[in-house]
Here is the input.
Amino acid sequence: MELKILLVEPNESVGDLIYQNLMREFGAKVTNLKSAHQAIELLNKAEYFDLIVVRNNSLETVDQPVEQIAALILNTIYDKSLKTPLIVIGEFEHTFKKYAMVSDRLRIEELNRLVLKALNLKKEDFIHMKLPDYVPFPIKYFYLMTISPCDVYIRLVKKSGDDYVKRLHFGESFTKDDLHKYEDLGLTDFFILKEERELFMNGLLTQSLKNLRAPHTIDEAVVMTGDSFVISSDLIKSLGISTTCVAMVEQTVQQIRTQIIKSDKLGGLLKKLMDDQLSYSYRRSYLICLMSYTLLPKMEWGSQDQQISIMEKISMVSFFHDIYLEDEKLLKIMDLESLKKAQLNSRERDAVMNHANKAALLAQTYPRLPQGVDLIIKQHHGVSNGVGFPDVLTSSISPMAIFFIVVEDFVTCILDHNDLDNFVNILKYLKQKYQLPSYRKIVAEIESVIIKK
Ligand SMILES: [Fe+2]
Ligand SMILES: [Fe+2]
Here is the structure.
């Protein structure tokens, strides 16, 4: 039996998230619509659904006024005497009480529980149907491994049906260069038998952690930490926060701090981070940590112990804050002006507008998150609700968010110019942009640190 679910979610990226989740968890065929009217049209055509999931009040957008989506749908269900269960996301009141509600601050697990309940099904019913026989994993997940934890296949797409060919045997060793050879052929994914998925995930975790911890030159360590930065943020986004990725995030963030503390010459580290073979997001996050480490003693934010704990916070913020942006183009949009110039399509725009808030919500589900990290993530573009960019900067956000904003802008300039000698112009730009005293102070400290060099 294939479940048919109608999803009405005006926000494209949230819709996408729920859509992917319903497909993955329940093997459901999901019709994802943005407006109530489209949905009602389908229901009027007598199209059958096992379940309807709607977001209530739509976000106000240019081409769509705020409307009670749930009420429109529920009225249609009532008028047509349909038996279809309804789940409403967000606040909702209606006299016809046949619906379940899930909070606006959507937790996917909560939604999944309601879906099972609404359909009178058990979790076990789906464990087997949701995965195909071969599960794809990005080749980059193998970067920190050296021994194949299970049999690994590549897919040959054929008209008569896909073929899977075994390329790595269980226990076989390989190098990163071997992996690059597959990627040079245009492959992005390896495939694993669904029964061996656990085996693979365990291997991924234990080998990656072990290899990360093994002694390396600083240059090697920076590259490896870059791989684990990319892998662990990818894992979080595709699987949610699980034991596997928590251990990897922790190790990644800790590696960055240790490398910074251990390297006595910042110049060497800085040069390595100019290497554009490494992911942009990683390089910038790393540079934010590096700069923060240099600046913190000057900030008079407490004893050395307190500085260590602030450094821990900043490295976590650095890891999470832009996790939902991948494209370098989007990562570089840091104010209203550059947002306007960028000419984004609606999906990209939505991603940029909401990335800070979404990342803060994600971080809140992370176990033992240092206090205040989610707030700084939310405010890392200067707005207190984490949506969009401010018209003018204000000092009414957390001092550490202000610190983060200026430091990130500075390191973004460094990466942009790809030239470590351009400090004079960068400082001129920063001074011009940040006139409020609380921001200005950070610029002054940055100046004092780099002029000394
Ligand atoms: Fe950022
Ligand atoms: Fe950001």
User: Anything to note?
Assistant: The chain has three domains: 4-127, 131-214, 284-452. The domain at 4-127 is CATH 3.40.50.2300 (Rossmann fold). The CA atoms of residues 35 and 63 lie 11 Å apart. Residues 321-322, 355-356, 380-381 surround fe (ii) ion (ligand 2) (CB under 6 Å).
